[in-house]
Design brief:
Layout lengths: L1 E7 L3 H10 L6 E8 L2 E9 L3 H14 L4 E5 L5 H4 L3 H18 L4 H14 L5 H12 L4 H4 L17 H10 L12 H15 L4 H17 L1 H5 L5
Antiparallel strand pairs: 1-3, 1-4, 2-3
Helix pairs in contact: 1-4, 4-8, 4-9, 5-8, 5-9, 6-10
Length: 231
C-alpha cells in the first residue's frame, strides 16, 4: 500500500539529485507542495506493511540528512480521480522515476509534454483551453493569472517531445483514457497536466502561460495548431 512522507528543508533540484545518487528500491512518486510550514516534497512510497514503513522512515531520515522528514497518512484523491486513481498513481510513479533519472526539465519540455497530454485527452481546442485558464483565474491569485501573457515563440510548435516522455504518456496515460467518463475528461485532463507540471517544478503562473500560448495559437491559426505541426 502507499505510504506518505513529507520532506522539508530541501529544494526540488536537491530532492531529484539525492534520489538520482541513491535510488529507492520501491515504487514511489512525489509532488511539490507548499503549506503553512513552507515548501516541501511529498513522497509516496509503495510498501508492504507498517514494519517496512518504519524501516523506510529511518532510511529517508538518513538519506535526507539535515532535512525534516515526517510520516503522514496518504489520503488517496478518489474525489479528484475517481476510477482513474490507479492510472494516475502508476503514471506518477513512471514520471517520477523518469525525472529522477534525467533531472529537471526545461520549459520547452514542459510545453511539449502538455501538448502531448492535450492530444491524448483530445482537448486541443479553444473550449477546453479556456476552461483550463479559467480554473486558475477563479482561484487564488486569479487577478495575477489573468495578466499572464503567452510567451513561447511559434517555432516551438515544430519541436518534438523527447522519446522517453512520449513513450511514458503512450504507455501509462493513453490506454486508460477511453474508460474515463466523457463528463470527467476536462477535469481529469486538467489534473494530469497540472500534476505532471508540478513534478517538473513548474509554477502555476508558468502553467497558465503555457496553456495561454496554446490558446493563442489555436485562436490565431486553428488549422495549423490542430494539424501537422502538432501531430
Amino acid at each position: 500500500m502507499w505510504y506518505s512522507f513529507h520532506i522539508y528543508g530541501i529544494s526540488p533540484e536537491q530532492f531529484l539529485n539525492t534520489l538520482n545518487r541513491n535510488r529507492l528500491d520501491r515504487k514511489y512518486f512525489f509532488i511539490n507542495y507548499i503549506d503553512y510550514n513552507g515548501f516541501h516534497v511529498r513522497l509516496r512510497l509503495f510498501l508492504s506493511d507498517a514494519e517496512e514503513k518504519r524501516a523506510y522512515l529511518k532510511h529517508l531520515k538518513e538519506l535526507f540528512e539535515g532535512c525534516k522528514v515526517v510520516e503522514k497518512i496518504y489520503d488517496p484523491e478518489y474525489n479528484v480521480y475517481g476510477d482513474s486513481l490507479d492510472l494516475y498513481e502508476e503514471y506518477s510513479a513512471a514520471l517520477s522515476a523518469y525525472l529522477v533519472e534525467h533531472g529537471r526539465v526545461d520549459r520547452l519540455t514542459m510545453l511539449l509534454t502538455v501538448r502531448e497530454l492535450l492530444h491524448a485527452f483530445d482537448r486541443m481546442d479553444v473550449r477546453y483551453l479556456k476552461f483550463h485558464v479559467a480554473w486558475w483565474e477563479k482561484g487564488t491569485g486569479g487577478h495575477l493569472i489573468s495578466r499572464i501573457q503567452a510567451s513561447p515563440n511559434k517555432g516551438a510548435a515544430q519541436r518534438k517531445l523527447e522519446d522517453g516522455l512520449e513513450r511514458l504518456i503512450d504507455e501509462f496515460v493513453v490506454p486508460g483514457i477511453p474508460a474515463m467518463p466523457d463528463e470527467a475528461k476536462d477535469r481529469l485532463c486538467f489534473q494530469f497536466i497540472h500534476m505532471t507540471l508540478n513534478k517538473m517544478n513548474c509554477t502555476i503562473a508558468e502553467e497558465a502561460a503555457i496553456i495561454k500560448w496554446f490558446l493563442k495559437m489555436k485562436e490565431e491559426s486553428p488549422h495549423e495548431v490542430s494539424g501537422s505541426l502538432f501531430l
